User: Fold Antibiotic biosynthesis monooxygenase from Streptomyces sindenensis.
Amino acid sequence: MTTHFTDRPDPARPDAQIAKASTWNVGTPQRQQEAVDAIREVWGSREWPHPGLLSYSVHTGEDGATLLHYSQWTGEQAYQDFVREGRDARNAEIDAAVPGIERLALHTYELYRSGPRAEGDTRETGCVVIVDVEFDGPDAARQRDWVDSVFAALGEEESLPAGGIAAHFHVGTDGTRVLNYAEWESAEHHIAALAAPGEGVGSPSPLWERVQKYPGMTGGGVHRYTPSLSMEPGAGAGA
Assistant:
């Protein structure tokens, strides 16, 4: 299989059993671009590494230092096969092009609920907002209840924020975290939504207060990224 470059991943695709999310710290905007270019070159010059890897995307952090990697897999075994058979060689070539990359935490998720883009919505995702939520211990039911609380709060909104396209809530397989992969038209739209009344995106209400002050939440954060590179397996030569 060849490597096929695409516009964006589809976090809601039904054949993805797990998603992996990790962050690289490369230090500067110039090195961000150099790393993206190196990843494109390394992956584009090789066959697709494993049929169980459904998509691999890289997003450039607004902080000028980080890259978010988001990949979708048919299961954990497919990822372990990739680690054993091909990951190190690819990373070594990227490291040769951009020395000193700091690879931060890697987490594994399952998609739980999506607020998908509306049918016929062809707006381009110009900004990906990653919302991380961490809890004080493993509890799969708590992860899902927090996500359900977000949807309950969204359900009472008269209208969704301008520029919002879709939101995909992932729960960590270790039971301790939630990741919302939110698609927006632009960073400016997300900034405007945060500036509206309330704490974060959403009107002031008891339901949103429950989301924001949920028992057992210990940390997290909100980070904006620009989609830079997305790949999936091609059907064959020329795909």
Notes: The longest strand covers residues 217-233. The mean pLDDT is 93. The helical segments are 29-44, 76-97, 140-155, 187-195, 206-212. The chain is about 30% helix and 35% strand.
